[in-house]
Amino acid sequence: MKTTISTRLMHTLYGGKKRLGSEALLRLSCFVKSQKTEGDTFVNKSGEVDLYYTSFGWLLSYVLGIDLSMEKRRSYLEKQPVMSLDLVHYAAYMRCVLLHRLMKEGKFRFLLGAMRPMPIRSLTSFMDLPHDDIWSPYTRFIWMSLLEDTQNKENEKKAVLEKLRSYRVKGGGYSNLRDREVTTTNATVAALAIIGQLEGYKPIDDLFYLRDTQDETGGFKAGRGAPVPDLLSTATTLFLMGCYDIRPVRPVHDFIEAHWLDSGGFSATLLEDSSDVEYVFYGLLALGAL
Hints:
- With 290 residues, this protein is mostly helical.
- The protein is built from 13 helices and no strands.
């Protein structure tokens, strides 16, 4: 069975957990719990219950061993307006469904049940797509992950790989917009993940281009014009390079450590002093990808 992106993410998160001592794990877990509501959902930066953030919260709860009520999880999922969600939130919803099943049934029984494809909405049914583009690298990355999570197949493999060429920037890397001259880390990581999942993780020029964009601090920027490296770009780049089995040019541990706050969470950049469950996910992912 082909290894999915989600399986690779989970493995990397567990790798990050193993790098932490008991005191550090307690600190991290306490922060995650502080972002949880009485309904066992999770809040966004504004302190409001949010499906997208709940998907990160449930994933971290599973990895860190934080107990969540089965009835509260089920109740929350049943209240979601599934047919009106945009692609990103629909993918978050489906990940929550899978995590709910995983926590309810246990890993072995879940894997047995997950062998059959789950029915999902078609990609053309979504009105709101990232960058309003059905073919952009980020849109296709979200869709590919969703297909994998639900045991469905990508029926447009050849078209996806051909369309990706329109988003490649001369000199290396990708953009989420066609025929652009500036790459973004988000688009490059997404495109390389798609290529790796569909064709195998064989080192290619764009991978080394991405590796060589590493900042002197050890982190990676969202794009050439970004003022400072950020934890999201760094974590996703390290994760992607790990899938291709290549190492960064410079050490990264100190960069990650500098983003770990006294609260137990991780900040997005060194210019910020707040956190949320999404950035705890990126912090733990970055540690696991070292």
